[in-house]
Automatic annotation (TrEMBL):
Transmembrane segments: none annotated. It comes from the Bacteria. Coiled coil: none annotated. CDD domains: SRPBCC_2. This is Oligoketide cyclase/lipid transport protein.
Amino acid sequence: MVYGRAMATKDSREVVIEATPEQILDVIADVEATPTWSPQYQKAEVLDRYDNGKPKQVKMTVKAAGLTDEQVIEYTWADDKVTWTLVSANQLKAQDAGYTLTPEGDKTRVRFDIAIDLSVPLPGFILKRTIKGGVETATEGLRKQVLKVVKGG
């Protein structure tokens, strides 16, 4: 009998933010501040940085769907995107996510993609709801935080 590997759960969403890609990436790069605008992140600590100061490896304490997890993720930065992949976690087997930024005049279209593979069984509807909430925060929450930072509020 062959057991297929559980499929990763994927989601994506777009949001238009009244800021430049650089301003948006700066907010994403300020990972220590993430818990202030993304409620599922309780703590974020930079373990390693690239030469340009952007975070490379980050340890995060994440609480979602009643589970608390310690995750280490590794970022890859470009001028118009940032992606990250899971290095280690207790509850997740894999996580690949990222933002792709497309300038539109004085605004930027931001697409967020995420794929996660859990190592603990969780009912499908709970998993979907949890990811949907995370994706909403990753777009709408990011937008609010960027506008706050850009407007100096």
